[in-house]
Amino acid sequence: MSRFDRYLWNAGAGLLALLWILPLLYAVWTAFHPAAYEADFTLTAPLTLENFGKAWQAAPFGRYFLNTFILVTGITAAQFVLCTLAAYGFARFRFPGRNILFSLVLLQLMVMPDILIVENYKIIRAFHLVDTLFAVALPYIASGFGVFLIRQTFMTVPRELDDAARIEGAGPLLTLWRVYVPLAKPTYLAYGLVSVSYHWNNFLWPLIVTNSVETRPVTVGLSVFATTDSGVEWSVINAATLMTSAPLLIAFLLFQRQFVQSFMRAGIK
Amino acid sequence: MFDTLFKGAATAAALALVTALPARAVDLQFYFPVAVGGGAANTIESLTDAYMKDHPDVKIDPIYAGSYQDTITKVITAARGGNPPQIAVALSVDMFTLLDDDLILPFDDYVKTDADKAWLDGFYPAFMENSQVDGKTWGIPFQRSTPVLYWNKAAFKAAGLDPNTPPATWQDMAAMGRKLTKTDANGNVTQWGVRIPTSGFPYWLFQGLVAENGGKLANAEGTETYFDSPEVIEALHYLVDLSSKDKVMEPGIVDWGATPKAFFEGHTAMMWTTTGNLTNVRKNAPFDFGVAMLPKHKMRGAPTGGGNFYLFKGSSPEQLSAAVDFIKWITAPEQSAQWTMATGYVAPRPATWDTPTMKEYAQEFPPVLVARDQLQYATAELSTHENQRVTQILNDALAAAITGQKTPEDALKDAQQKADAVLSAYR
């Protein structure tokens, strides 16, 4: 690649990156400046944290954060356990109906979760779980995508390792724990990231199934500000948006290298 | 299997509840949206608290459900899932949707005494248009609005216009707009004459133009639209011409949410927006402003908008009569006055305007009366069966004409055909 080519590529990548980051930069600009500077980009504009104060006051964000945190850690942990066990079964055990069952699991990937909202709601109601965090998590715990992804990774583990563990006297569960899970770490990391960001941002289902501050995640809480009827207070909305997305952003910046690598290894694109 | 298990558990739980609470205890769930900024949700909660204090046998659980769109999604899902709220506030134009899904009950069964009837008759007729069909009342007006024209008196003065005279007619508005539009040395416009937002739900303000032109968008039964009638086409021509011929309005789709801001910052000298913005403008406009009725053409006209109370199927008779009693209470003059002052919504009953609280408020801030006085000319907001689809068809047509992809005639003719295809099933 000639030098010129490289410059061209870098310029192109830079331009795309700039386009991508503009909304975020705008959010940062408006959040840290008084409302008068929403469309006035004077570099000497006074900085302020007042918008964050206002946003924090306007809704119980502390509680919302706690809810979201419990929710995403709970969902991801439960998904890891369930999907690992199911994937192990599908990858390494022969049993009647295995292929049919696995195609049923794959079928779940084809169904948009939004279609099932009314049915899910009926089930949650029959369980008397409406307005609980558990209800927000329940429909997502048995994830077809997770089973598929982890199964594919387990299939690539050499049989010899499995056999060696067995010769050493390890049972199936110990083999899973000692051989398969450690080798699938990049997949877990990548899947965990996808799952956490999906559930951090999920809106429709939590909106429908939660009724109170004690159960609502940040996304639903954030919709408090999305009231366009009387004009939008961008500075306060963007302060709230930054607050709610900050944990994810910071986590991504911290673990950026690991994330990108694990994505490449796990082949999620 | 689970079903029987849980039915058993539910029965046990219900029995436990019945024995634990006083005999007449009634639980109500009340979903409501908030579409204006500020403490509207807190106002609703303090009102329900006040009601429960006076009625210890009723427990109301007010559930703030986000925007109108979020609320209706939540209500419909819960109702289809077998867990409807007893009361919800939703857009008045959602009446046909809720009826088609067979989710709501008419209020007529609970209006028996003469006092009840007087209550039901005490709402402005313009607001009841979107609330009644086939002789039954399905919605009770609550957070209702109508668009008005706001003008910047300082800008009028600077342009050599009388700061106390808003445009009275379409021609006036275009002519004044030309004087008010200012360009800088490079030919860029620094101040537009007028701003009629067209993003999101352009049909609403457009309906004002149609009404002023003596036209109608749909019939009262919600089965027929008149998108390609001459009055509607002419109204769209006027709207498009404001940008393309008169050059007094920013071309292209004009954002709704940013409109008050553009007004405060002097980017536009006049704006059309909801009266629900009144408190917002009063607080934030750094100049003297006026509020006027929408300018007339053949006649005066404006749509109404906003939300109604609905009563949902699937509740016990005790719950329903408690729910109606609560709705009566919250729409009574004193409570309604509190709500109007907190938000800027138009109090839906003349009686509210006669309370001392309201009179005092109007004396101190006369612009609140403009929306009320405009109600006599107001018409029902566009509402049909399959309302979301039909309004979307019209919105798309308006956007196509405003952005110049189609002529107003073509856009509206296409829209009428599509609307006919959707509505033919209901005729």
From TrEMBL, chain A:
Major site of localization recorded for this protein:
membrane
**Could you tell me the membrane topology recorded for this protein?**
Multi-pass membrane protein
Assigned keywords, A-Z: Cell membrane, Membrane, Transmembrane, Transmembrane helix, Transport
Q: Which GO terms describe its biological process?
A: transmembrane transport
Q: Where in the cell is it found?
A: Cell membrane
Keyword Lipoprotein on this protein?
Answer: no
Q: Which residues form the ABC transmembrane type-1 domain?
A: 65-255
Q: Which Gene3D superfamilies match?
A: MetI-like
What GO CC annotations are associated with the protein? plasma membrane
Q: Where are the transmembrane segments?
A: 7-29, 64-88, 100-118, 124-150, 188-208, 234-255
**Which family, according to UniProt?**
Belongs to the binding-protein-dependent transport system permease family.
Q: What protein name applies here? A: Binding-protein-dependent transport systems inner membrane component
Automatic annotation (TrEMBL), chain B:
InterPro entries, sorted = Bact_solute-bd_prot1, SBP
First-listed, main subcellular location of the protein, grouped into a coarse class: periplasm
Q: Where in the cell is it found?
A: Periplasm
Extent of the signal sequence: 1-25
Per the record, GO CC terms? periplasmic space
Keyword annotations of the record: Signal
What CDD domains does this protein map onto? Answer: PBP2_UgpB (cd14748)
Q: Which family does it belong to?
A: Belongs to the bacterial solute-binding protein 1 family.
Instruction: Give the protein name, as stated in the record.
Output: ABC transporter substrate-binding protein
